[in-house]
From TrEMBL:
The keyword Nucleotide-binding does not apply. GO terms for cellular component: plasma membrane. It is found in: Cell membrane; Membrane. Residues 101-218 form the MotA/TolQ/ExbB proton channel domain. Belongs to the exbB/tolQ family. This is MotA/TolQ/ExbB proton channel.
């Protein structure tokens, strides 16, 4: 598990609780059923309207993925590809058939299988690029849900505030004094508070985390694609290594070089 994610999901609630209680307030002052319905209900309805229902339903799965550490390691993938390159260089591509069955990553497994099957290099490149594009589209659709949530929930919070203000101002016509204004204003602002917490405490950070995870995965897929095409082209393993480590920062390059040696 990536321990940073659950901690950062809990912290907004903890910080708000500290701010409320530490400031001498009461939790009861920040709980209002009507405000919750307007903000959460209105925001959720707009979110479903703006996105594919299947994508919205799949949001918990996306959060579950964030809770887990990536299953891939750039270093290990490069080492695996270099090993494949050396073996193919010595004994031919067909000898990789058994090794491919042990590959856990579907993208790498599919690409290497295409190579072993003798698929045209340009077709291999097109198929794998299409796969990458589809992965990016799926990731973008999930991230869009959180980006939309970051704008829609505060908007509905503002709508709730306007509703509260109208009700408060109407009540003043009945002879309400300053006490009525203070109480009414507090209730009116709660919906804005709810929307702001949802957007800034959860939606935007999760969207940012998804973007970072996608960027990392996209780089891994690019490494795999470059390695697969180099193996198919029969490149020298040393050239394959130089190509693949160029994707990495200096510290990781050194780690790979130490593991594979100068070969």
């Amino acid at each position: 598990m990536d321990i940073i994610v659950p901690i950062c999901l809990i912290m907004p609630l903890a910080i708000n609780l500290f701010g409320i209680i530490g400031g001498g307030g009461s939790l009861g002052n920040f709980l209002d059923i009507a405000s919750i319905i307007v903000t959460a209900g209105g925001g959720a309805n707009s979110l479903i309207m703006a996105n594919d229902i299947g994508t919205v339903i799949g949001v918990p799965k996306a959060i579950k993925v964030l809770l887990q550490k990536p299953a891939y390691s750039e270093d290990q993938i490069i080492i695996t590809l270099i090993s494949f390159s050396e073996k193919a260089r010595r004994e031919g591509l067909l000898v990789l058939e058994d090794d491919i069955q042990e590959v856990s990553d579907p993208f790498l497994k599919k690409g290497m299988q295409l190579v072993v099957d003798g698929t045209d290099p340009e077709l291999v490149k097109n198929i794998l690029n299409t796969e990458i594009d589809n992965i990016e589209a799926r990731h973008d659709s999930v991230r869009k849900v959180f980006d939309d949530a970051a704008s829609l929930f505060p908007a509905w919070g503002m709508i709730g505030t306007l509703i509260g203000l109208v009700i408060m101002l109407r009540s003043l016509g009945g002879g309400g004094g300053l006490e009525t204004i203070g109480s009414g204003m507090a209730v009116a602002l709660i919906t804005t508070y709810y929307g702001s917490v949802i957007a800034n405490g959860f939606a935007l950070p999760i969207s940012g985390r998804l973007a970072a995870r996608h960027s990392s995965e996209a780089m891994v897929k690019s490494i795999m694609l470059e390695g697969i095409l180099s193996i198919q082209a029969g490149d020298n393993p040393r050239i394959v290594k130089d190509k693949l480590v160029s994707f990495l920062p200096p510290a990781q390059r050194q780690k790979v070089n130490e593991q594979v040696g100068d070969r």
